[in-house]
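Write out structure tokens for BTB domain-containing protein.
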Amino acid sequence: MSGDHKTFLKGSPSHYVKLNVGGTLFYTTIGTLTKSDNMLRTMFSGRMEVLTDSDGWILIDRCGKHFGTILNYLRDGSVALPESIRETMELLAEAKYFLIEELTEACHQALNKKERDAEPICRVPLITSQREEQLLIMSTSKPVVKLLINRHNNKYSYTSTSDDNLLKNIELFDKLSLRFSERVLFIKDVIGSNEICCWSFFGHGKKCAEVCCTSIVYATDKKHTKVEFPEARIFEETLGILLYESRNGPDQDLIQATSSRGAVGGLSCTSDEEEERSGLARLRSNKQNNQS
């Protein structure tokens, strides 16, 4: 533009200069601009030509949005960084351009922290196929808890409490996944099944237990689907699946002796009282053998 010219600028640290940074105007001293070793010190210590307009404004072809933050950092040695990731990245670009290493490093650290903070506490895969389910179960070293939810199965009408109980099952699944996410892989199945609400528990790739929360009840005129919420049993099975955290697996005698129900897959199903008596009998037998 007419009137713009280049010159070498040098003055005392207390000398004020006028800066036009991308159309945003700033007043500051040469002492502030040359306080640390960066591009601004080179520009305002007489070692580099600067462009000025006819009114004496020194022109810097950068966005002025964060230049005030850069000046405050040069004045104080520290500055509050922007809250948003986007603005922190914008400030990082300016700090890099002006070769302000300490501010650049501070921006990098802030961005890394924001990325860590943005990581979810737990991830719950949503199954889209049977094959995907098997791959998840077989590829993890953690025990697995799966909740199958299929409210769209409307073969029969639901009882009055079924919807509330369905929501309670989902809420319990969310709470357990938050509490045990570091130790257990929680997965949710919504791909569709004849089941409506069913919990499955896996250890070392095999199903260890299952809690089905639905049943068919008979009214005077028609059948109804009933969804239950066996909270204590679900919580018990979740704690039991933690036995499979060990690579070698849990002790089978311990499982037999402490189980209060029949296992799923390979073990015969008995009533609660029969299984409890059987477990106590085994414990007494082991104790007598040890004493003898």
